[in-house]
Amino acid sequence: MRADLSVLLQWVTLHGLIVMLGLAIYVAASHTLRQRRNPSAAIAWVIALVLLPYVALPLYIVFGNRKRMGRAQAPPPAHFTIQAADTSSPPAAGSRQLASAMGLPGPSPYQQLNIHENGDQALQALRSLIDGAARTIDICTFIFGRDGLGDEIAQSLKRRARDGVRVRLLLDGLGAYLSGPPDLKALSAAGVQTALFVPPLRSPLRGRTNLRNHRKMAIADGDWLWCGGRNLASEYFVGDAASSREKPPWIDLTFDLRGTLALQAQQRFAQDWAFATEAPHSKTVLSADAEPRVRTSKAQLVASGPDQADDTVYALLVSGFFASRRRILAVTPYFVPNPTMMLSLSLAARRGVTVDLVLPEKSNHGLADMARHRALRELTAAGARIWFLPRMIHAKAVIIDDEIALVGSANLDERSLFLNYELMVAFYDATDIQRFAQWIERQRDASQPYRAQPPGLAREVSEGLLLWLAFQL
């Protein structure tokens, strides 16, 4: 009996030491690295480290780091003065002021905006960009499919590399393997330069494997940008006709354009490339000659992620929701917002702003579908309108008061807004904003309204656990 008690005391002592070690590591990392973690996420980590330190501590070391890895935030230009917020100003003006304060590059000219109505148009535009490049092709994607579509693009990149075009392909280190391991050797043998962004098993960035590059862009010659939500795999363009059960393509949103904005995107790609390859990066300075002398539309490149000093996309969205006056029109495949974003949307709906949110009735992530219902019930109670599209929609876009359209790769969930490297474009031209709005409205018109159902106890508990743990850590 005494021996059993001695063993128990030793185990309790060892457990206590491990708990203390885990909490010490958590506190030291949070303080030293200045991590700005959501309070519920912090509570979840602490409880896990106390109750299950043997599991939670290794997970925290591998996945828990949210340190920002970018350069220090640049001060505003000398001519820029930060003024008190003007609540009477339109959302677009406030967004531009906020973006400048966060050190984002200013709006840049673009021409020939082409919004792709479907996967066929998006694929044709991508083919034209690759075939039309004279000097350089830079492509960044989260998934590069080992399927018919991926193979076609790979062959095109090899052919252009043999033509003497410099071709660089940047793949996320984890996303690249979601549809099978990419054949990087064959690409490299043909002259295509390839790189994996933070590969989990051989990353030089220990503790940061949870930070994924979710940006999608293709740039030709620093003048032609193809961008949006589509990964380079069959389901995003043409569907899957090879399987026993033919699957239609997902509905997604991409666009291409020309102009100085594309050169800015190439600069963004070059920074990501230098980070992934650990190579020196020389910044391209945009000369005055790059600016057109005639009046053109302007848009702003909004990069978000650990390489930024602020959560840029999140800040612009929340600020825009609070400042909205007439309507908010959004489409996203996954909707798991944090409390502040929920508050901004709910208050907008309650003060009479028309809030329309288009979602897939069933997405490709079941946990996200389960976790979204608490937010959807709260929004509908506030007066917002939720629409379920019977097909999978993967588009990511938000229109605020027809004065700003944010379009790109970021979902309205905490992984996209706080962990992933994302890329959005903020459009300010009224005509182009209306074109994006009409695209979303066509998806809304094909959808059915969401009807909130009172949840049972089991549903409430399961949703709470998912929101507290799975989508916060």
Word description of this protein:
By secondary structure, this protein is α/β, with parallel strands linked by helices. It has three domains: 2-63, no CATH class; 106-295, 2-Layer Sandwich (Endonuclease, Chain A), CATH 3.30.870.10; 312-470, Endonuclease, Chain A (2-Layer Sandwich), CATH 3.30.870.10. Helix content is 41%, strand content 18%. The protein has helices at residues 2-32, 39-51, 53-63, 91-101, 119-132, 148-162, 184-189, 260-277, 312-323, 339-350, 366-371, 373-382, 414-419, 430-445, 457-470, and strands spanning 108-115, 136-141, 166-172, 193-197, 217-220, 224-228, 254-258, 297-304, 327-331, 335-336, 354-360, 385-389, 397-400, 404-408, 412-413, 422-427, 448-449. Strand 5 (217-220) and strand 6 form a beta hairpin.
| Total tally of structural domains | 3
Q: How would you sum up the major sheet?
A: 15 strands, mixed
Write out the strand line-up for the largest beta sheet, numbering strands in chain order: 4-3-2-5-6-7-1-8-16-14-13-9-11-12-17
Give the CA-based shape.
globular
Radius of gyration, in Å, reads 23 Å
Q: Which CATH class of the largest domain applies here?
A: Alpha Beta
